[in-house]
Write a structure and sequence with these properties.
Number of helices: 13
Shape: elongated
Strand content: under 5%
Number of domains: 2
Order of helices and strands: HHHHHHHHHHHHH
Helix content: 55-70%
Structural class: mainly alpha
Distance between the termini: 59 Å
Radius of gyration: 25 Å
Number of strands: 0
Largest sheet: none
Length: 299
């Protein structure tokens, strides 16, 4: 039934074509996990419609049926030739591209195109859900937080604290990885890039420490998210250079969130293999060999 409803909504969607308009979107389309996750404001139907527009264009670019790929894009108005055109005009262009007579295309081929589009959207949403886990939702509060004097409430809050600390560390690492990427793109000096990479390493150590704390306290999988472990959350920050198990353990031990960058740097430099770890991390993250610039302090 859900698949039938999705196909029905795709049929409605194609009538208006691209760009996707909120009034053309049904609840099943807007409720797809991959649409909600891509929306800047998931609570806003217009934001979800924009996310659906991008997702639909992406799926049309990767249309599974190679012979009908061009026709599918023309039918939805994803090509400049039919962008903004009426359904009749888009259908005519799509039929010509697929080398079918218009009536046959509308009766026999178009339903197959729409069915495949619906299937790809459904599959993308299912795969997205299997690859992604969302951070805890935050809501604006107007009053002071008050907890009952109850052990179960304390335990629940303890878990929320561990989860928030993990996600917080992930976002801090994400920010530093973006900084490194920006500096590399700007062709900044090696000193600037290596300093930024050092900060990213510090944040990465905090992610590893938060992940280790969660595993030690609550186990290898997230409570209420049986398919995910804290290491999957850590990967959401972005790509990081691969490290050995010993190196990750060392960083986790040095990733005390109360310690500053200078203390982290000093302790890492003094640790066995620490200098090698820093050099390897910098080279991999920056894409530069570095030469003498690798000696620039991380602090």
């Amino acid at each position: 039934m859900a698949d039938d409803a999705l196909q029905d909504e795709v049929r409605v969607l194609v009538r208006g074509g691209l760009p996707v308009r909120p009034e053309s979107c049904g609840p099943v389309l807007l409720g797809l996990q991959s649409v909600k996750a891509r929306a800047l404001r998931p609570e806003d139907p217009a934001s979800r419609a924009r996310a659906l527009d991008g997702l639909l264009r992406e799926q049309l670019d990767r249309f599974e049926n190679v012979e009908l790929a061009s026709a599918a894009r023309l039918l939805f108005g994803a090509e400049p030739a039919t962008s903004g055109a009426t359904l009749t005009a888009r259908r005519q262009a799509a039929a010509a591209a697929a080398r079918y007579e218009v009536h046959h295309f509308r009766k026999r081929i178009e339903p197959k195109v729409l069915e495949l589009v619906a299937w790809q959207l459904r599959r993308d949403s299912e795969e997205f859900a299997s690859r992604h886990v969302a951070p805890p939702e935050l809501h604006a509060a107007s009053t002071r937080m008050v907890l009952p004097a109850d052990v179960f409430a304390w335990e629940a809050v303890g878990h929320q604290h561990a989860l928030a600390a993990l996600w917080g560390a992930v976002y801090l690492l994400r920010a530093e990885l973006l900084t490194v990427a920006r500096l590399v793109s700007m062709d900044a000096s090696g000193a600037e890039i290596h300093e930024a990479a050092g900060v990213a390493l510090w944040r990465h150590a905090q992610v590893l420490a938060a992940s280790a704390h969660y595993r030690a306290t609550y186990g290898a999988v997230l409570l209420h998210e049986a398919n995910y472990g804290p290491q999957e959350i850590a990967a959401h920050a972005g790509w990081t250079p691969p490290l050995t198990s010993a190196q990750e353990l060392l960083l986790a031990q040095l990733g005390d969130p109360t310690a500053g960058l200078a203390e982290f740097t000093t302790r890492l430099d003094a640790a066995e293999g620490g200098a090698e770890l820093v050099a390897t991390w910098r080279r991999a993250l920056s894409g530069r060999d570095g030469g003498t610039e690798e000696k620039v302090s991380m602090s």
